[in-house]
Predict the structure.
Amino acid sequence: MIMLKRLSLYTLCALSLAATSCKSDFIDQSPVLNPDEEGIFSSEARLAAGVEGVYARAKNQYFLGGFATLAGDNRSDDMMNVGGNGYTMRDTYNHNVSAAGLENDYMYNNAYLAINYANTMIENIETNYADQLPCDAETAKKYVQECKFVRALSYYYLSQLFGQPYKYNKDALNVPLRVKAVTGPGENDCPQATVAQVFEQILKDTEDVSALPDAAVTKASKASAHALRMRVYMCMDEWQKAIDEGNLITGFKLGDISKMFSPVVADTDENIFSIPMSNSDKSGSQSHPVSFMSPSYGDITVVNNINGIATVYGVEDDVRTAYIQKGKSNWYCVKYTDDLRLEWIPIFRYAEVLLNFAECYYRLGDEAKAIDYLKQVRTRSIAVDKDTLVTYTESGAALWTAIDNERRWEFLGEGIRGYDISRRAEDYRHPQTDGSWIVIATPADHTSYCWAFPEYEKVVNGSIQ
């Protein structure tokens, strides 16, 4: 399933046409909607569309179009999965994703398809068609950097789900690191890289962003690349390097948080990078799996109403309490409730950058700056004189609790909590009905902490250990 021919992205996505005409000149033509590989490099418009195909592959509902977010929430302690369906992250929640699991099958396949699309475009632009590109050198460089960003982001999510934390063991085996296009049979063999090697590749892919725009919302930009690098450095406990990356993210500000969860968010000043949705992205009755948190889908992924962050941190005057809907038996996160399921899915937003700063400065011992960044995010949603939980004079362990709680509350339903637990090499835990916790996975146990590789990867890749 990972093997792809080096064909135009139109060809990969379009249906082949069955020619029935007796006219040879018609049969010999390459239809506009289905050009061969050379055809995609015959015009700048087609080449631009080819790069769009890399984004289209990554935004598949089984990858960045929903599954990556849903996986993060189902690996957190602030959400619960009561659906009992393998398709809707039951095994992820229970930390028993086997080689035959549905969620890892779908997401692994689509992540590597996105990576291979990116690899194919990079090789074609830099090597195979370098002497006949229909665009100027700066545009070609931009296209390559966009593809490398998609590849880097894909490896970030794969590494977090299929590997142990860098903080626990940076030399532990992680996912196969494919940076060359798979173009035919026998090219799938690829050994597993270490966690450190995967992170090194992500940083390498996002090191040069000179040709990218400062901001782009739905495309790679300098800001989204620096946001990704900030996350990676935090995974590595490289706090000052993370701060340095965050300082390069400029031109954004906090605004109306409700605009982040809307079918139209392109003009939101807080939005660094989101996965856009439209009617053409719909599959059946829904366009992205994060809708499984909506009460309209029944009881699937619900808010932990036993002892999660929503039970101890919500303040009545906090506008974010509107995102918690209490039902008869369960509570729901209603950030994604549009009837047409067209909300954009935020991957990076400015609130995360600010709370990243708060954590980084706290780790470096600068509590004053940590409080300042915490306050910026929290007072966007609740006035200081209405806040009964945070005084902004906390220090030590109390300050860390305030920072962590704010992060959990701000990003509830956005997948970040589960990835935070992993990068900090913390235990995964489940609530018990009596209000206590039970540890369900520890970093030392690869089988429960990480997703297993799908069966097909083991079949086609003889280098998997």
